[in-house]
Amino acid sequence: MAGNAHPAKMWPQIAATAIARYSKPGDTVLDPMCGVGTSLIEAIAQGRNAFGVDLEPEWVEMARTNAEAAMAAHPGVRGEVVQGDAANLVSLLADTGLRGKVALVLTSPPYGAVTHGQPDTSRVTGGKIRNRAHRYSTGKPKPESLATSSAPRLQAGLEAVFAGCLAALKPGGYAVVTSRPFTEAGQLVDFPSAVIRAGIAAGFTLAERRVALLSRWDGAKLSPSVTFFHLHNVRRARAAGKTVFARAHEDVIVFRRPQ
Q1: From CA 116, how far away is CA 228, in angstroms rounded?
Q2: CATH number of 12-217+248-256
Q3: Phi/psi at 164 (nearest 5 deg)?
Q4: Which of 59, 105, 109, 116 has the most crowded CB, counting CB atoms within 10 A?
Q5: How many CB atoms lie within 10 A of CB 130?
């Protein structure tokens, strides 16, 4: 899959499980913040049609490349990606015929200007460890980007996105949103609860709240998957006497459009 530079790709196993559980072959899966298109790839692989939206042109191109490769490997289903602001989802879907026809929305909203990224060690840099692939945009972020929003603006932006998702879904359709708590300025931010508030404000019913453990299983040992920089920051905070823990999970929030 193209797109290793994206800072916050959805785990394929989470996407595949949600698609299998909340949709059926021939359905349409929508990701309004699709990044490099992990959710679209998994939808196409399971015989679903896929429609993705992303704000950043660089990720749109990668998502299109990935969707085209998936369609070549799994003929008979459609995959389309458009560039645009998910807060204007109703307008973006106006000419697609998808409004009120989508079976599943599957997405992972961005949060914070940066994520933990990937490390270049001293073997690469010749000196200090360098962080890379830790921003949602390699250029100047767009003003409407949720990733660079303040908390109140992020909440309002999520409500606008979810209102569009509600309009896209058929009655009884599901919206599955992955999110996780994060630390900002030394404070723990309960982002999953903000997602739930935004979904309910947009008109959704909260159907389920699950947890996906981000780990590797070798048949005998469960090893949580924690990024280098997150683990480094946790160790540094604990050395300073703070009570913090490494987070190796995502909340999987399941909304439903009322019948």
Answers
A1: 8
A2: 3.40.50.150
A3: -65, -40
A4: 105
A5: 13
